[in-house]
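protien #1 (seq + structre)
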Amino acid sequence: MSARLNSAQPYAIGLFRIVVGLLFAVHGAASLFGVLGGAAGTGVDAGTWPGWYAAVIQFGGGALVLLGLGTRVAALVASGSMAYAYFTVHQEAALWPIQNGGEMSALFCWAFLLFVFTGSGALGLDGLLARRASAERERPADQEPVTA
């Protein structure tokens, strides 16, 4: 049973990455563009600190994590932004996340920190690009592509 679950681990990480990335990107899109349940068709004013920058990180970082492209770096930045959000916005209100409304910030922070260490898992562009680069390096000299 354990071996079977272990063999599915990259796919479970990949699916988890896709869901977390999608949710984070949607949150950023709602803040930036006022869509998908955002603030009645209006987004955050461009350049306002920290809301606009957080929304850009959420939208861009979420999209990168969703695609599995540059996952570790994007996840590190996203995790840091959520830690910042928790400690500067939510922690002031109360100690526990359930009391201060910071559950989502804490969950996103720890989920993205997990991706820093696990990578994108299966189904990500990181793995596809790594396999393609590996195949390019291993191609014998007599199989070089013909150019016109």
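ok now protien #2
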Amino acid sequence: MKFIPNRLILTDKIFVLLRDLIHAHGGIYYADQQKDMLADKLGVRVIERGFDSFLDYYYYLKYDNQTTEEWENVMDILAVSETFFNREYDQIKAMAELFVPQYFDKENALKLWGDISGRSLRIWCAACATGEEPLSIAMALNENGWFERAPITIYATDASTAAINKAKIGIYGQRSFRNFPDVLQRKYFTQESEGLWRVVPELHSRIHWDTANLRSQAEIEPFASSPIIFCRNVFIYFSDEAIRETVGMFAKFMPVPGYLFVAASESLLRLTTDFDLQQIGGAFVYVKR
């Protein structure tokens, strides 16, 4: 645990104020028993900004109109960027082998989406952390020959600027490759130094990186019209209210049918009527009605 000076006491009342403000801004929710965790994460930043209390920092975030950059720092501090390549690969496999072929099958596409001639298939990774997920998607598409056959655009966003900056660099440690085939690691990455690997430019350039806060309709609207959205391992940190609102925004802009992939540990069954849970090709996916 980080050392936090004694004067920085996060009382229950101020914790609720900060917790609710963070929840409203970024969707991340801290339960009552996580007060010490929030204090630990934010305490050093409060001192760095020159504030004497969590309450002063709360007032700064809530009422100062020039806090856009500071909110970026907050999201960086609170971000959980632990991920790895080919995580929950059954969904990625179904996307590359079933949904993408379906999209580019002219007769089938005409029935489902109308005339899509010349239109690029948009795939959005809505909480991509440091980039392992969109790169896994790109590798699966490339392994199935789709980049040579059809126009596909992959967007990858995260609320954390620091995570996106790391993704743009494209260098990964060995932990990102756990349970990842050696043959693919050698094909798509070059070793930079001991334990560090850089993704090859041909694959890395397939991804369009950006920052986007899932709680902001203005920020996600340019991406949410994608027929395929991956939003995995982020809702576990959201409240039910934040999940409902975010999924509602997805439903507002996604075409019909639209395919929403969430993690196996994340259920939307009680939270939305806009999507039906289906098992397709061995993978669970929420299909927009």
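The beta strands are 121-125, 152-158, 171-173, 189-193, 196-199, 207-211, 228-230, 259-261, 275-280, 283-288.
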